[in-house]
Each structure stands twice: as C-alpha cells, then as structure tokens.
Amino acid sequence: MSEQNEIAALRAELSHLYAKDAVRAVVMQYFRLCDTLGPDTSMDDLRNCFTRDALWEGRGRYRKAFGRHEGRDAIVAMLGSYAVPQPHFAMNAHFLSSETITVSGDTAVGLWTMLQTSTYRDGRSDLRSAALTIHCRVEDGRWRISHFITENIFSRDVDHWSDTAPISVPDN
C-alpha cells in the first residue's frame, strides 16, 4: 500500500472513530437531560439532540405507555410534559451498557441495554430495563438522533433506593 493510500485509510478510520464518539455524545447528552428533567431543563438543548423529522417510539409494552412521537417538536413536547409544571421524577438515572455503534457515512445505528432507576414525585420507585435502538444522522453539520426506539425488557417496583443501614464490608 502506498503512503498516500495508508494516509487515506487512516483518515477514514479516524473519521469513523470521530463519528462513533459523536453518536455516543449525543445519546449521552439526551440521557443526561432526561435524568434532570424539570422546569430548569433546557428544552433547546433537548431539541438539539434530534433531527427535525425524528421519530421517538416505544415498542412492545412501551408502545402503550409512551406512544410514538413524530418530529422534533412533538418529541420535545412529550419529554417536556415530564418537566413541568412539576418534575415527574424526584430521582432518575439511566445506565447504558452493551454498546454497539455501526457507522455508515452520515448515518449510524447504536444498540444499548439500558437500566433505569427512578423515584417519582409521588414517592413510588421502580427499576426498568430496556433494549434501545437509536438511529442517528448528521443534520446541519452535527450528529443527532433521528429514530429512538425503546422496548421494555423488565420492570420492577422497589421500596426505596437508599437507606441508613451500614454498608456491608468484610470483617478483618
């Protein structure tokens, strides 16, 4: 392979790695905002995570719970309903694992397994897991979510997340 071809191959690989990192960054930004949804959450920051024609949908058990929302404004309106007039969540945390991101030019598909821990304004708490398929593409020069799919794996109510009991450590 000539030096020019090697440089071109390295540039292509570097571009591919940058794209995967940008996809990961927009997905993480989305979940950071979801974890802090409230009256002070920037809906513009949330809006910037999505393409203008984005689709957000729950599948399986989540279709009835969350529905299907077409277009960035509809998605932000749905998510905003969890923020005002009072935050729906007293505590919310998303944990993503088992990541696979496949990039093809200006489009990408990411797969994750999500664990979500939540305490609601009414005091109830639950633990949920979902399979996520998140399509992204470049729009206006940046990677954005174009199709967000969430499908429930399991859900379980819990009594509470934190208590004052001592943390268990080995006796020495």
Layout of SSEs?
Elements: H1 3-35, H2 43-47, E1 50-59, H3 61-66, E2 68-70, H4 72-80, E3 89-104, E4 107-120, E5 125-139, E6 142-158
Parallel strand pairs: 1-6
Antiparallel strand pairs: 1-2, 3-4, 4-5, 5-6
Could you characterize the architecture of this molecule?
The protein has helices at residues 3-35, 43-47, 61-66, 72-80; strands at 50-59, 68-70, 89-104, 107-120, 125-139, 142-158. With 172 residues, the chain is an alpha+beta fold. A six-stranded mixed sheet has the order 2-1-6-5-4-3. The N and C termini lie far apart (61 Å).
SSE pattern, N- to C-terminal: HHEHEHEEEE
Biggest sheet strand order reads 2-1-6-5-4-3
Low-confidence stretches: none
Question: What's the mean pLDDT score?
Answer: 94
Q: Kindly report how far apart the N and C termini lie.
A: 61 Å
Sheet/helix structural class: alpha+beta
Rg over C-alpha atoms, rounded to the nearest angstrom = 19 Å
The helix count comes to 4
How many strand elements? 6
DSSP strand content: 35-45%
Provide the helix percentage: 25-40%
Tell me about the largest β-sheet.
Answer: 6 strands, mixed
Anisotropy-based shape: globular
Structural key phrases:
six-stranded mixed beta sheet; 44% strand; 172 residues; alpha+beta
Summary?
The chain is an alpha+beta fold. It contains four helices and six strands.
